[in-house]
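Morning, I've got a small favour to ask if you have a moment. It would help a lot if you went through both lines with me. I owe you a coffee for this, so here goes:
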Amino acid sequence: MTNNATSKELNLADIQGLIVRGYNMNVVRYFVLSVNDATKAKEFIGDLIKGESLKITSAEQWNIKPSHCLNIGFTFEGLKALKLQDNVNEGFGESENYEPFIKGAIAQAPGIGDTGESDPKNWRNGLDKQDKVHILLFLFAEDQDTLSQKSVELRDKFKKQEIQELGYFDGAKLLDDDGKPSDMIHFGYRDGIAQPRVEGFPAKDGIPDDGQPVIPAYEFVLMDEPQAQYFVPEPHILGKNSSFAAFRVLEQNVAAFEKFLQDQKKDIDPEILAAKMCGRWRNGVPLDLSPEKDQLEPPITYAQFNSFDYKDDQDGLKCPIGSHIRRNNPRNTLKAIGKPDSRRLIRRGIPYGPPYDPQSADEERGLLGLFICASLGQQFEFVMEDWVNSGSFAHLGDNVKDPLLGANNPQDSKFDIPLSPPSAEKSLEIKGFERFIITRGGAYCFLPSITALKYMAEIPST
């Protein structure tokens, strides 16, 4: 990939690795932690900065891929619990940009559709106790043995430094038909295709050159750039080269989704409906390039899976305007207001729970997601409020939501599939579907730079 954009060179050694690269590891464990003693918690952070076996992974290039990676995030309550030497409240309180982070995921839940069954009172593994959730520790590993071994080591540190484990979430890649780890999710779709290409991120760790705009790094990393919309909060040493992330535990009701598809087959083929709702066929081929079948001849490359826009499909005849991928990344759609490129999110997701088997008793399954940005309000919450849970941005109607991710209910849910001649109808209206994705947990995290972590641990600068 050639990155033609220009900006200051990023200090990759100072940025947490999960911001810059998807580690592509097979299993994860995300710990939900609470601080009991500020001094010992600072020692804990210091150990993870200076450690060997367990060390926070930076975005610095590696020659040999490690067996595991480790990253860390802090809620606003967590920053306060550390009793830092500077007044963090004042630093983050100087801009309304940081208001969602200060208030926290539970307070912000109604605005992004976390109501009803998704209400925070139903959240799991300690995430329902916002005042107690201080740290999220993200452990990635190539295999289960490594994950288990490193978890034992971490829990020894928790005990030693009085870090309380409120709970944890495990995730693992789903296996393909050959028993190899895949990039599929429980709904049967290929995932992780349309990641943004970011200015200054290493090409070999980045996204294939798919012809999409290169997004400035300051949309994801807090930087001293004149063009940056979001200034670095004080103390400056804490904010620079840091990021934010929304952590989400998203249950996927696969049984209900598959039943819904079959229930519509008198009007539309179930696989075509699944493609129209998503904007891609389940194998990842986009409707914009192949609206009638899930394969192109000759087959397209992986980069081409994202090499399209909607300039020739303004009415959504190929890919419905209300589909999942078109809402979450409107590209150059003229009807989509709100500076689409500035609303992008870096996504790190992995399935949790057993593979779906219609013949066995149903169990919970879903996706563990991290949505990384420089502004929780103007990026993550904007997408959830204005694009996912409203259709007004594209003149679809205020209450017309994303058919996959939206907070739908059978009483008023609706999804329009535009039809072209010779059909006498302008569109096929699909109605009465339930919410297929339920929020089972959430937290708003600050992802400090390596320099910031040293500051938090009171390690002298060198």
Notes: The chain has a mean pLDDT of 92. Residues 144-160 form the longest helix (17 residues).
